[in-house]
Specification:
The protein is mainly β. The protein has a domain of 62 residues. It is built from 1 helix and 5 strands. The chain has a 5-stranded antiparallel β-sheet with strand order 1-2-3-4-5, with no helix packed on it. Strand 2 and strand 3 form a beta hairpin. The mean pLDDT is 75. It comes from Papilio xuthus (Asian swallowtail butterfly).
Length: 171
């Protein structure tokens, strides 16, 4: 056993020294195909918008849903670098939150938040259903006992092993 270990150690040392090739690599066969003609799709020219030195816009929206009670609105205007606006929404606690905000290069973003109670009328979608379960009469069925079943165990026969082998030890 020691002889095998010494031989393997010598082979590893020889391979590490470069005397014996360490490994043989196998590569898949290379297939050469004819060149494929490829035409790139035409590049779409993007429209470049010119820089607006003084942008201006104004927008607003309002939602009033009587069925769900959803109520919100917003309006905003921009004139150059100055933005002013306001939005309001009814919060789940029943208050109306209104935020008035401004933004400009000198003061940054500033917001003032106001909350006020609101009586929201929400329409009922469906009336509640009353449920009364009728009492259930329960009668237990009589228990019937079956006659015992006779059981006779058959004897267990153990056969002798056919052959023995010496244990194999691996190191």
């Amino acid at each position: 056993m020691a002889f095998r270990f010494i031989v393997m150690t010598c082979l590893v040392a020889a391979a590490s020294a470069g005397l014996v090739p360490a490994a043989v690599s196998y590569a898949a066969p290379a297939y050469h195909t004819a060149p494929v003609a490829y035409a790139a799709p035409p590049v779409a020219k993007l429209a470049v918008e010119e820089y607006d030195a003084h942008p201006q816009y104004s927008f607003a929206y309002d939602v009033q849903d009587g069925l769900t009670g959803d109520s919100k609105s917003q309006h905003e205007t921009r004139d150059g670098d100055v933005v002013r606006g306001s939005y309001s929404v009814v919060d789940p606690d029943g208050t109306k939150r209104t935020v008035d905000y401004t933004a400009d290069p000198h003061n940054g973003f500033n917001a003032v938040v106001n909350k006020e109670p609101v009586a929201v009328k929400v329409a009922k979608v469906a009336a509640p259903v009353a449920y009364h379960a009728a009492p259930v009469a329960y009668h237990a069925a009589p228990v019937v006992h079956a006659a015992p079943v006779a059981y006779h165990a058959s004897p267990v026969v153990h056969a002798a092993p056919l052959s023995y082998s010496a244990p194999i030890y691996h190191h």
